[in-house]
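Archive entry. Fields below.
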Amino acid sequence: MNFQILPSLLAADYGHLADEIRRVEAAGADQLHLDIMDAHFVPNLSFGPDMVALAKRISPALLRNVHLMMTRPDLYCERFIDAGATTVQIHVEADCDCWDVLTRIRARGIRAGLVSRPQTPVTALYPYLHLCDEVLFMTVNPGYGGQAFMPEVLPKIAALRARIKSQEYRCDIMVDGGINLETACACAQHGANQFVTGSFLFKQQDMTTAIRTMRTACAAAHQ
Ligand code: DX5
Ligand code: ZN
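PREDICTED_STRUCTURE:
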């Protein structure tokens, strides 16, 4: 089981994006998480494929984990893959054929992820688990960084970990929203192994130590 820390670029200083991307890579992050918001699926608008291309140009070796908070990811997923995404995640609540889109993402030779809002039952994910390399549980309502962690999502994580084990799937379990050292460990105790963190991490003076500490603590806490 590998434990990964993914800084969310949404929380970076937009006046110094290239430096922030280099800072994330130098700090030993496992991947860079890029939040794409369409002002329809979520009440916010962030950035598009050009930001993925920037990240690839600045730090080609840093994996690019692209979270599509979009109503119609079927219309745009190829543009993010062409821009350099190494993972594309779509929401199970999106208005598209998730089976088809996840299959199309994998056909391009990159990782496919499926995301659920806090309120969505974990069972909604079950028909797609064989098509996913990772499942992302939102631990806040998607759309903004800096929100409070929602502990009611924890049982969903445990239920999926049990399902993956019983059905011998191989997908990773990722969490995203209000993740700090304490909430990351709580998620690890319930079975998560990948951790997206924005506001907590970008406000650290020593990002390297913060990433190493979170990764080590989660590995120790993991069930
Ligand atoms: C929220 C995004 C998250 C967010 C995390 O819709 O999907 O990735 O940027 O930010 P924090 O860690 O500050 O909650
Ligand atoms: Zn995200």
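CURATOR_NOTE: Residues 207-221 form the longest helix (15 residues).
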